[in-house]
Amino acid sequence: MNRSQMREQAFVLLFEKEFFKDKSVDEIEKIYSENVSELSDYGRELFEKTVLHIAEFDEIISKYSKGWRLNRIPKVNLSVLRLALCEMIYSDSVPESVAVNEAVELAKKYSGKEDSAFINGILGTFSRSK
């Protein structure tokens, strides 16, 4: 399994967590492992780290998504943005440009046509502001 596929696992877990907020990280991981596929170490680590820092990522998303409140951003896009921010901030092994590109690719696959540009804009602006 390549890094993109592992990242996609983490995205699916984050998206599922949006609908099952009452379920623990362990429960979500178990459901995924039993019903989809074995969870990679990187996918698990990225999911857990993103959930741990979700408030921090939401603050960043709110700051850079001009005119959009978090509750108006589609859950798919929130999951993609949170995941990318986690890699950009907490993963030394992933260059920021790769995290942004991977987020755009996930958005193209799972979200609406124009959403990839929205995601690219937020992540690009955040990256340049550091």
Structure write-up:
The chain is mainly alpha-helical. It is 75% helix and 0% strand. The chain contains seven helices and no strands. It has helices at 3-19, 25-35, 41-52, 54-64, 75-90, 96-110, 115-129. The longest helix is centred in the N-terminal third of the chain and has 17 residues, at 3-19. The protein is globular. The mean pLDDT is 96.
Gyration radius, in Å: 14 Å
Termini Cα gap: 32 Å
- Point out poorly predicted stretches: none
Strand content: under 5%
Tell me the major beta sheet.
none
The percent of residues in helical segments reads: over 70%
Q: What is the general shape?
A: globular
- The secondary-structure class comes to mainly alpha
Average pLDDT over all residues: 96
Number of helices: 7
Counted beta strands: 0
Question: What can be said about this structure in brief?
Answer:
Helices cover 75% and strands 0% of the residues.
Give the SSE map.
Elements: H1 3-19, H2 25-35, H3 41-52, H4 54-64, H5 75-90, H6 96-110, H7 115-129
Helix pairs in contact: 1-3, 1-5, 3-5, 4-5, 5-6, 5-7, 6-7
List the main descriptive attributes of the protein structure presented here.
130 residues; mainly alpha; globular
